[in-house]
Amino acid sequence: MSGPGPLEPVEAQQARVLAAVRVLGSESLPLGAAAGRTTAAEVRAAVPIPVFDNSAMDGYAVHAADLTAASAERPSLLPVVADLAAGTDLTPELPQGAAARIMTGAPLPPGADAIVPVEDTDGGVDRVSIRRAPVRGAHIRRAAEDLAVGDSVLAAGVRLTPARLAAAAAAGHGSLEVRRRPRVAVVATGSELVAPGAPLRPGSIHDSNSTLLAGLVVGADAELVLAERVPDDDAALIAALARARAVGVDAIVLSGGASVGAYDVARSVLEPRGIAFRRIAMQPGKPQGFGVLEGVPVFALPGNPVSVAVSFEVFVRPALRTMQGRAPFPPPVHALAAVGWRTPPERRQYAPVALEYDGPTLLARPASAGGSGSHLAGSLALADGFAVVPAERSEVRPGDELAVMLVG
């Protein structure tokens, strides 16, 4: 699309993106290598949790009926006939009128129906004095009370956190079928860009976009396979795109050159190749390019750092989540505006905000005193997320409820 064109809804551009991406294939990985991956299939329990009846406390396994009269004033005395540690495979029958010393996690001996915590005893080894009558079933973890064999442990399409991996391990799995990581190339365009830390020449700036995009890609659980910086030169960008395709990528993300300026190289190279450039009703991030080039989704984002970050969260991250079999849009958090600010007319605003609690109330305030300008890279370092302000609102007032997209 050439020329300025009308402003189009954010949702329309998101729909185009999601219609063009596909869920990637899967692979089996050991649990130790699966953190951050996405389940490709439902995970069901191969063993019950707990696997067997076991003690929830260090103490003594007993017959509750033997101790109905036990009290601090008149303790009951029982012989100790067994000593059961966690991991033991010896679980002798517990005779009536006896106790077995037992550690947390040890199998419950047959016949026992209660655990007396060691704190309610004198800790005896051969004989134990019990100062409190136990309730039948006290401090016993019953087999399968959490999960039975075949119960669902994890749904398909969930990110594997340490807690979820632990649940899979407890349920008897040593490996899981997970989605392949999307392979992503990022290319920052601009003749003014120099490497971070390099001396600046007149008119140049340090390239923060390639660092920003690389971190966002990795933070989205994708694999960064190429990161380049090219000048505003058609041949240089064409060569970078060829290198990206040569290493095999699932997406290419460019920053800069997406508008209608004389040196907007991304547009001059990509538009003739079928990548559509549109004006989206959002601030920041109005100029957006997207399409499929030789089977690879290509995102052409604006060049200002805040625009890059917002555009990634609104368009690129949902695509990478979809490729991994996840829901494209994680739920936002809700906060109250700590202060008011003006918003752009007829455009949805994504304002960088810092979050803080005032008692139980979550508050959002602008991350930078300089406003929400798309060039204010420093505001990104202070932002916990982007407050989403609908296009029909002309201002945010103190106390207004805001939906906030968390960063990362």
TrEMBL record:
Keywords: Magnesium, Metal-binding, Molybdenum, Molybdenum cofactor biosynthesis, Transferase. One of its GO terms (molecular function) is metal ion binding. Its cofactor is Mg(2+). Pathway: Cofactor biosynthesis; molybdopterin biosynthesis. It catalyses: adenylyl-molybdopterin + molybdate = Mo-molybdopterin + AMP + H(+). Pfam families: MoCF_biosynth, MoeA_C, MoeA_N. One of its GO terms (cellular component) is cytosol. Gene3D superfamilies: MoaB/Mog-like domain, MoeA, C-terminal, domain IV, Molybdopterin biosynthesis moea protein, domain 2, Molybdopterin biosynthesis moea protein, domain 3. Its EC number is 2.10.1.1. It comes from the Bacteria. GO terms for biological process: Mo-molybdopterin cofactor biosynthetic process. Residues 185-322 form the MoaB/Mog domain. Belongs to the MoeA family. NCBIfam families: Glp_gephyrin (NF045515), molyb_syn (TIGR00177). Catalyzes the insertion of molybdate into adenylated molybdopterin with the concomitant release of AMP. This is Molybdopterin molybdenumtransferase. It comes from Agromyces archimandritae.
